């Protein structure tokens, strides 16, 4: 006579990608949330500052342009898609896009060109599902803040920079001191999309008598 010991295994199978909570958000500084929380409560640090530093660290915050152009090339669109994915994690945060040019051309023309570049970025982020109300302002510095000091054409100067600018709906005071809560929410969401719960029944061994 044989007695089969059958185990009923409940396994939560994630998607084919094998999502695990935290795998996409912990860059080695996850434990700093408590320190940030304390600093914000003490007024030494703000929610906007902390999120701004994290945004600049985790995704490319600028895209570059061809000479005398405000058209987004494939590389720029890829970077902006990464920005949009990051921005969607924080519905309470607003962003500002700064437009820049190189030093070729007049100041007036370059300020207009920088603005058109910023507008192109905002339009693309909006196409990725980011509300325009969260893109706080379109700002052009034109040729006044070059990365490289040269009067020649230089792609590095022809850019936009996306930065965290504030908190939607005046919630800054509410969120300061609660950075750890926001990061924990981010940690939990990193495991999404949640999978269905599957039941796995299989024999794990047997006993003979």
Describe, in plain words, how this protein is organized in 3D.
The protein has 209 residues and is an alpha+beta fold. It folds into two domains: 1-19 and 196-209, no CATH class; 47-175, OmpA-like domain (60s Ribosomal Protein L30, Chain: A, 2-Layer Sandwich), CATH 3.30.1330.60. The protein is built from six helices and six strands; from the N terminus they run βααβαβαββααβ. The strands form two sheets. It has a four-stranded mixed sheet with strand order 2-5-3-4. A two-stranded antiparallel sheet has the order 1-6. It is globular. This is Outer membrane protein OmpA.
Short description:
The chain is α+β, with helices and mostly antiparallel strands and 209 residues long.
Strand order of the largest sheet: 2-5-3-4
Could you name the CATH homologous superfamily of the largest domain? OmpA-like domain
Instruction: Give the DSSP E fraction (strand runs of 2 or more residues).
Output: 15-25%
Q: Estimate the helix proportion, in percent.
A: 25-40%
Main location: membrane
GO cellular component, one term: cell outer membrane
Protein name: Outer membrane protein OmpA
Signal peptide: 1-18
What labels would you give this structure?
OmpA-like; OmpA-like_sf; 6 helices; 209 residues; four-stranded mixed sheet; alpha+beta; Bact_OuterMem_StrucFunc; 60s Ribosomal Protein L30, Chain: A; 2 domains; membrane; signal; disordered C terminus; two-stranded antiparallel ribbon; disordered N terminus
């Amino acid at each position: 006579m044989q007695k089969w010991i059958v185990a009923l295994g409940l396994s939560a199978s994630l998607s084919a990608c094998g999502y695990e909570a935290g795998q996409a958000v912990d860059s080695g500084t996850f434990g700093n949330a408590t320190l940030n929380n304390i600093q914000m409560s003490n007024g030494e640090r703000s929610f906007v500052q902390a999120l701004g530093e994290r945004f600049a660290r985790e995704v490319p915050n600028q895209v570059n342009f061809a000479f005398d152009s405000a058209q987004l090339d494939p590389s720029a669109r890829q970077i902006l898609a990464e920005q949009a994915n990051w921005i969607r994690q924080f519905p309470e945060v607003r962003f500002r896009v700064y437009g820049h040019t190189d030093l070729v051309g007049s100041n007036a023309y370059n300020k207009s060109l920088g603005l058109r570049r910023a507008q192109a970025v905002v339009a693309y982020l909006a196409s990725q599902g980011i509300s325009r109300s969260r893109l706080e302002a379109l700002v052009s510095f034109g040729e006044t803040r070059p990365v490289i000091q040269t009067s020649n054409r230089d792609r590095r100067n022809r850019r936009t920079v996306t930065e965290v600018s504030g908190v939607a709906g005046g919630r800054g005071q509410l969120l300061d001191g609660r950075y750890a809560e926001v990061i924990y929410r981010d940690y939990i969401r990193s495991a999404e999309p949640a999978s269905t719960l599957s039941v796995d029944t299989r024999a794990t061994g047997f006993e003979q008598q």
